[in-house]
Amino acid sequence: MGVHLVGNYIFTEPGQKAFLVSSNYVNYFELGRKGVTDYYLEAKIEKEEFLVSGILYDPSGTPLCNIKENHVENIKGDCAFEPLEMQGYRIVDQNRGACIFMLFLKEPNLCVLQGKFYDSLGNLIAEGDGSDFRIFKGPAVLGKSGNSLGIVLDG
Amino acid sequence: MRDIVLSCRDAICRVTCPDLESAGTGFFISSDGLLLTCCHVISHPTIDPQARIRLEYSEHIQIETALETYSACIIHDKNSTHPYFEDYAILKIDAKGMQYLPLGDYSHVEPGDKVLIAGYPFGFSYLCAASGMISAKHRSPSHINTIVNLDMIQIDCSVNMGNSGGPLVHVDSSSVVGIVSVRVGSIERNIENLKAMPEVTESHIFTEIVDALEGIHTYLNPGIGQAVSIEYARKELAALNLI
To answer: φ and ψ at B212, to 5 degrees?
Structure first.
């Protein structure tokens, strides 16, 4: 199942802090489910800070690194961390020369998420670049306010 | 204040990386040669042939004490961005009987508390101390990379190039509560831009004016000193079972 979302503001408004997931502005984004799926990515805004956590795999299903509140941990040998000027970074799969994950502040209130997200079997879960974001396999959540969820995609 | 300076003096060292043309300050935290400094003193981003920016650590870190010069190795986790974003580095030299400074508690300090810094500004070969107070505690985007926010201590001491990596000593508790990391509000980049302008380089008068500005910037220190909370280094030290 492919989902194509464009230009939505989900639990956020123009001028407020938001993640830019393709061209959708969200206050929360979750890919997979922590403790349930082997892959996981969570992007949230807490106390006015962008916080991203997750587990990244390469196309062969090999773990590349963990992301813990924007910090990259357990960087494996095939994975390179590259700072982006002073406003973010990207993680590159050195074997394939491909950007697996990119996180950067486009503006003080706008954090951009891009990348190719794989599971431990090498299946492509989601893919996003500057113009599009496709989720191939749920579960996923876009937007959250307290117990209210925005767009929910089941697995 | 003299007693505190004298008690700290032998625990503070100069950190140089000839391969990176970098120098700063460090301080010992154990008698067997464990020390802290800033990550940016011992590393820098480089651009590879594919125009990719990578973080490179020095391979020749030298620690200069009053008596001897040592080679240091990096102890912190290089497979994590914590040291890079939080601007700390954990090093080790092969030595015993070193004077060292105790680590304090960032949560116990408040604006108005007296503090002391000491280091090797401007590449001086002698230790320079400066005193002041905590102007503010705040959480702000890291000066290394704004994607991460840090707990910082703003001080009114004179902080200059070369002070990076030095201890921020809380006078009342005689312990280290931060690592001196950055001077903000500097006009260094403005001066560099001016020096690159043909209108300046081709004019004797403008060159004199820019040189004067550079002198004012260097020696009158327009800018605000900041230290990163010691808790980031402490967390990794604990994870490594070093404290």
So the answer is: -65, -40
DSSP state for residue B52 in the 8-state scheme = -
pLDDT per residue, tens digit, chain B (243 aa), is 888 898 899 999 999 999 999 999 999 999 999 999 999 999 988 877 766 677 889 999 999 998 899 999 999 999 899 999 999 999 999 999 999 999 999 999 999 999 999 999 988 889 999 999 999 999 999 888 899 999 999 999 888 889 999 999 999 999 999 999 988 766 777 787 888 888 888 888 888 888 888 887 776 665 679 999 999 999 999 999 998
Nearest to A70 among B77, B144, B147 (CB): B147
- Residue of A57, A78, A67 whose CA lies nearest to A111: A67
Q: Is the pTM of this model over 0.90?
A: no
Tell me: ipTM over 0.95: no
Token duo for residue B62:
């030298």
Residues of B in contact with A88 (CB under 8 A): 145-147
Contact between B53 and A82 using a beta-carbon 8 Å cutoff: yes
**Inter-chain CB pairs, A–B, below 8 Å:** 54
